[in-house]
Amino acid sequence: MRDIERVIGLKASAICAREQSDQRGFPIVLRTDGAEGGQTIPWCEQERCRECFEEGEIRVRTVGRGADRMLSVPLVEGGKPYGVMLLRLPPGLEVEDWKLKLLESIGHHIGAALATAKRSDERRRIALMEERSVIARELHDSLAQSLSYLKIQVTRLKSHWDGNSTRTQTADVPRGSQGGPHNAYRQLRELLTTFRLRMDGRGLSDALQDTVGEFSRRTGVDFQLHDHLRGHEIDSNQQIHVLQVVREALTNVEHHAHAKRADVRLAIEQGRVRVTVEDDGVGIKDGEPPTHHYGMAIMHDRAATLGGTLRISGRPGGGTRVELDFAPRGPFQAAPRS
Description:
By secondary structure, this protein is an alpha+beta fold. 47% of the residues lie in helices and 22% in strands. The protein has eight helices and ten strands. Strands 2-1-5-4-3 form a five-stranded antiparallel beta sheet. The protein has a five-stranded mixed beta sheet with strand order 6-7-8-10-9. Strand 9 and strand 10 (320-326) form a beta hairpin. Helix 3 packs antiparallel against helix 4 (167-177), helix 3 packs antiparallel against helix 5 (179-199) and helix 7 packs antiparallel against helix 8 (295-305). The longest helix is centred in the middle third of the chain and has 66 residues, at 97-162. It is elongated and about 100 Å long. The two termini are 39 Å apart.
């Protein structure tokens, strides 16, 4: 506003922005001329905001009870109005054409800045809603199921307690629920780890490297990562599903396989992403999960969400192979170099 006053010779009194669906404006910057509290301007009639926004071109209008003459400069970008800039005109002064063209250009620049700020805010809002949606889905698909199972078991226990069940029948219920709190806590820990890895913005390859390192240190199993997907990007939501499938598969190796070594491989084959986790443990019969273990069912659900398939089978020579296969959303693109 000071630059405008210096170059144009007119005092810029206010820059007001507006929302598309609201006829009222709100001042971003204003000169109060000593108005009490510095929050109002004597010539501004806020109940008549729409009159400042009616025209899409520079015009002179009379405002306030003192009949002040104001030059109204629209702030537009791509033909869309984002606000108005008001400059006070001294009595009898006419503004030269070059000044009007310069003010019109300034109005476009301010309008573009407001439009960019609005788009950035909208992108942040969408990103926040997507992140909340991912968190809600992850909680529903894992932790909520474990808690629902525990709730059912508590209901069963109460039914046995209030009924005529034998001591043995009643005691069977808590024995069957022993793994529930452990699974719920483990799933919560896995979710927190996944969200932390995702929020640091380093990408899937680094998150997988951290995951393999974490399991190796914790279990003593020799986990190895063979990442031939590095250098390509996949959708961020696909990344979190891949990471969770790998973590669940490694958790199964930790708790059930009794393995000495496991390999995690990622590759692109004929335009499809293939993720494989193999171990040299005791193997699994017909891909059937242990009792009360929902991890494999959740992995199948994730594969379905990706539009792909998940196969769990025995490995030649012993052990288990978990194989996830899906098509990425959109073509592969080279990841940006840091």
